[in-house]
Amino acid sequence: MFQVRVTVRGYELDSLGHLNQAVYLQYAEHARWEILRAAGLTQEKLLSSGVAPVAMETTIRYRRELRAGDEVDVSCEFQWGDGRTFGVHQEIRKTDGILAAEVDGLGGLIDMKTRKLVADPRERWKAITPDPATLGL
């Protein structure tokens, strides 16, 4: 499973000293871009291919608090099905394995010219990604 390590920084905390809720989304976004990079797909290459990923829905389930200095591993796993959308499941875990949060998203791949979702995102990802196996393809 793909994952990236992040250290919680002091300026990311809320008034209670916990990781701010919006930062969980930033960590998840960071991991999504990193898995694409690991698959050989840079942002520039993605955009030059005429498509871009879009987030359509995101759900966060908070399990344990995070504080400044905590190190976490943020995973990223694409879930492929039929149709114009795909799922992304992510877990944010402390390095001792404790689950701090789960992030589940529904995404699509938008054609930059038509501004519509591509009909088969799985096949389009395969066509433009140097290492599609990293994305579970």
Structure, described:
With 137 residues, this protein is α+β, with helices and mostly antiparallel strands. The chain has one domain: Roll (Thiol Ester Dehydrase, Chain A), CATH 3.10.129.10. It is 23% helix and 38% strand. It contains three helices and six strands; from the N terminus they run E-H-H-E-E-E-E-E-H. Strands 1, 2, 3, 4, 5 and 6 form a six-stranded antiparallel sheet that branches. A hairpin with a 4-residue loop joins strand 4 and strand 5. 23% of the residues are buried. The mean pLDDT is 97.
Number of structurally distinct domains: 1
Compute the average pLDDT. Answer: 97
What's the number of extended β-strand segments? 6
Count helical runs: 3
What's the level 1 CATH class?
Alpha Beta
Determine Rg (CA atoms, Å): 16 Å
How much of the sequence is in beta strands? 35-45%
Helical residue percent? 10-25%
Main sheet attributes: strand count, strand direction, barrel closure: 6 strands, antiparallel
> Would you identify the CATH H-level superfamily?
Hotdog Thioesterase
Distance between the termini: 13 Å
Give the oligomeric state of the chains in this entry, treating copies of one chain as homo and distinct chains as hetero.
Answer: single chain
Secondary-structure class? alpha+beta
Poorly predicted ranges: none
Any idea what the shape is?
A: elongated
- Assign the CATH topology: Thiol Ester Dehydrase, Chain A
CATH architecture tag: Roll
Order of helices and strands: EHHEEEEEH
Q: How is this fold's topology laid out?
A:
Blueprint: E1 2-7, H1 21-38, H2 43-48, E2 51-62, E3 71-79, E4 85-94, E5 99-111, E6 116-117, H3 121-128
Antiparallel strand pairs: 1-3, 2-5, 3-4, 4-5, 5-6
